[in-house]
Design brief:
This is DUF397 domain-containing protein. The protein is α+β, with helices and mostly antiparallel strands and 89 residues long. The protein has a domain of 60 residues. Helices cover 13% and strands 29% of the residues. The protein is built from one helix and six strands; from the N terminus they run ββββαββ. The strands form two sheets. It has a four-stranded antiparallel beta sheet with strand order 1-2-3-4. The protein has a two-stranded antiparallel ribbon with strand order 5-6. Strand 3 and strand 4 form a beta hairpin. The longest helix has 12 residues.
Amino acid sequence: MADVPPNLTWERAAPPDATGPWIEIAFGEGEGDDGDAPVYIRETGDPDNIVTTNRRKWDAFVLGVQAGEFDHFVEGVEEVGGVEGGDTP
């Protein structure tokens, strides 16, 4: 695993009052549109297990989510407490 800077600002992908394990992301150093700038991803329940990708791949993933490319993963999952699937995204 690549070295993870200790001073990252982690952003949780959940409402502030949400409970349960959630995904957090942090953006590493990079200038402007630097597609090779690192992006770090972890789960709140296991914060020492960090996955690293780059900004170009992260942006492609976000565009895919916005376009509905992954909606089939949650088809048939009931919405509970405002979040599909209950406590986990």
